[in-house]
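Reproducibility note. Readers wishing to regenerate the assembly model reported in the main text can use the exact inputs given here. Chain order matters: entities are listed in the order in which they were concatenated for prediction.
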Amino acid sequence: GAVVSQHPSRVICKSGTSVKIECRSLDFQATTMFWYRQFPKQSLMLMATSNEGSKATYEQGVEKDKFLINHASLTLSTLTVTSAHPEDSSFYICSATRLLQTNEQFFGPGTRLTVL
Amino acid sequence: QKEVEQNSGPLSVPEGAIASLNCTYSDRGSQSFFWYRQYSGKSPELIMFIYSNGDKEDGRFTAQLNKASQYVSLLIRDSQPSDSATYLCAVNGGSGGSNYKLTFGKGTLLTVNP
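Running the prediction on these inputs yields the following structure tokens for the assembly.
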């Protein structure tokens, strides 16, 4: 149990376009979902925390108008990178926690974004 | 700002040896400590977590926590080539009221040589 999926696994887009990444909890209801970004040879940096039905909480330095997060249901959160630029190329990973087990995060497989 | 420090490595050990990975953290109020393994190009996978001072063993892995020294370690016994990966230390809890948010170290690259 506690499987998290992400789609797509890999995306290449042109500069200036928007890209949507989906994060789904497949066999549990996720009370909270997290979005991380990881640049090569760097650690995971938390971008934002989202709870179903409420606005996401962004970490300092993360532009909320550029990285739009929608957590419409207890099993789905989406991250939209708007007007993507080459510096947004990164590995985006989501994670989720479930009710009564909020201390453990279950990670999705990640999405590799390349902006040309 | 919370910080989690790890030696970046690479740490190289021969097959069958014990690999020792170390991590220190800055927030004395941190409550939970996690070790993740990350293969290149993949997302992290949880190896184990520890909350209390002392040792916690799970198969070939042993986590050690010393809150007084703000230090947590991971020992891998009988290291296998398949253990070659980056090991991430993560911490949550503590100050700021964000008990569930993880702060990650940069990771230690472990290479187990056959």
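We highlight two features of this model. The mean pLDDT of chain A is 92. DSSP finds no helices and eleven strands in chain A.
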